[in-house]
Amino acid sequence: MKRTLKFFVLGLIVLSLATIAFAYAATNNVPPGYYGDGSGTISGYTVSNTVYTPDANDPVNIATVAFRLNAAATTVQVRLTTGGALFACTNTAGNDWSCAIGTVSVQGATKLEVIASN
C-alpha cells in the first residue's frame, strides 16, 4: 500500500511539473500586424548611363561606378567580379546611384552586377 501511494504522489508531482512547463511554453506573445503568404512577378531594373571613374591616385583601379535605374530603389549594391565583394551605393538624385569601389582594377572588372531592391 505504501509503495502504491509513493508512485501516486510521484506521478502527481511529475504531472504538475509538466503542466507548469507547458503553461510557460504556451505564453508566446505575437504583436498584432499583417501576416501573409503570396506570390508576384519580380521584374528587374534597367541600368543605364553607366560611368566608371578611375582612381585619381592610381588610375589602374576604379574609384566609382555611377548609373541610373529605371525605377525607384531603396537599397543598391554592385559587384564587378564573379564572386567578388559587394559595394554599397548611394542615391545621388532621383534614380541616379554612385558606388565607391577603389579596390577593383580596370582590368580585373569582368562584369557589372547591380543588386537593387525597393
Q: Can you tell me about this structure?
A:
There is one protein chain. This protein is α+β, with helices and mostly antiparallel strands and 118 residues long. It has a domain at 47-117: Immunoglobulin-like (Sandwich). It has one helix and six strands. A six-stranded antiparallel beta sheet has the order 1-2-5-4-3-6, with no helix packed on it. A hairpin with a 6-residue loop joins strand 1 (47-54) and strand 2. The relative contact order is 0.17. The model has no long low-confidence stretch (mean pLDDT 86).
Defining key terms:
Immunoglobulin-like; alpha+beta; 6 strands; 118 residues
How are the SSEs placed, and which strands pair?
Layout: H1 2-25, E1 47-54, E2 61-69, E3 75-79, E4 87-93, E5 96-105, E6 113-117
Antiparallel strand pairs: 1-2, 2-5, 3-4, 3-6, 4-5
Q: How large is the share of residues in beta strands?
A: 35-45%
Number of strands: 6
Percent range for helical residues?
Answer: 10-25%
Poorly predicted spans? none
Order of helical and strand elements: HEEEEEE
The largest β sheet comes out as: 6 strands, antiparallel
Assign the CATH class of the domain at 47-117: Mainly Beta
CATH architecture of the domain at 47-117: Sandwich
Secondary-structure-derived class: alpha+beta
> How many angstroms separate the termini?
73 Å
What value does the average pLDDT take?
A: 86
Radius of gyration from the alpha-carbon trace, in angstroms:
30 Å
Instruction: Enumerate the strands of the largest sheet in spatial order, edge to edge or round the barrel.
Output: 1-2-5-4-3-6
User: Would you tell me which CATH topology of the domain at 47-117 applies?
Assistant: Immunoglobulin-like
Envelope shape: elongated
Secondary structure tally, helices: 1
